[in-house]
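job 3f2a | input accepted
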Amino acid sequence: MAAYETLVRRYETLAFRVAYLVTGSAGDAEDAAQEGFVRAYYALPRFRRGAPFRPWLMRIVANAARNRRAASTRRPALSLDLAADRPTDDPNFAPEAAALAGEQRRELLGALNTLREDDRTVIACRYLLDLSEAETAATLGCPRGTVKSRLSRALTRLRRQLEPPPAVDRSRLARFSDD
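job 3f2a | predicted structure (179 res):
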């Protein structure tokens, strides 16, 4: 029991973040993370010896969070709190740079929230949670090659969302308004 308590302490923050990315709600994320830990405890006899624990646990937590979200009607949205850069101790860090970074972060997360859930999830696992490709694959329950292809497609869609809209040719509009 003490060993399991150590594992819970080690992974509780990551479990909450994974659950929050799926549910979009702090309250639901807390419940899902706790439920995930309980499910993992009862599933320990089925854990493969020698397999990495973190992706196995995160997959259980993500599944608990998906179940919780499916029970509600809310669409999850990524939060700036999860992706926010931590305050820097660098005395040369200018407030203007912080404001620009904050605006870019808001724009990025706004674009992320327009993507499909599976796109948001693979990007969040890989980049917001810093899981390796192998850990992301284990968390999502798919082969590593699938993670690579999903990530590539998701990043392409994200780039499209971040591209500025095409400029409007005002001379063409003027022709139509004269009619």
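job 3f2a | The longest helix spans residues 2-23.
job 3f2a | closed
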